[in-house]
Fold this protein.
Amino acid sequence: MRFTGWILILLGLSQLLGCGYTPGYRLPRGVQRISVPIFRNETIPFRRDIEFSLTRAVKREFQLRTSADLVVQEEADAVLHGTILQFREGVLVESADGIIQEQGIGVRVGLRLERVRDQRVLIERVVEDLVSYSVPAGESIESAMEEAVQEIARRIIAELEPWYEQSR
């Protein structure tokens, strides 16, 4: 009975391991190495240094949520190009006496993933996010900006999953 129990456990484990399950987002066949150059910053008015923060966040998300190796462009199977199209700030809630209660940051990013060997565009999308913050509640624009960058980076990486199915 003990031997049969171990056999059943091993069979169950082999089924789980053999089913192709991998944690995080899957990449298309043939793409294991990805290059992520510094995103372009086309914000008007110009929002300084957001391109560096966003590029770092996207690279971190790639490392956390995919099996991709981040490499220089010459060694890559695919390159993710990003352009920060818009960064806007605005008032979301104002009290009756004109005091700003809540503000928001909106970020809009264009992305294009290209296969290196044939320059085929695998994905081209625009991703955006809105983050609110309240100065009276002790929140700052800096923390809201960091949150917006992290959320946009997560959304960019999440775009890989539907892309995998289309490229088979």
Q: What stands out?
A: Confidence is low (pLDDT under 50) at residues 16-22.
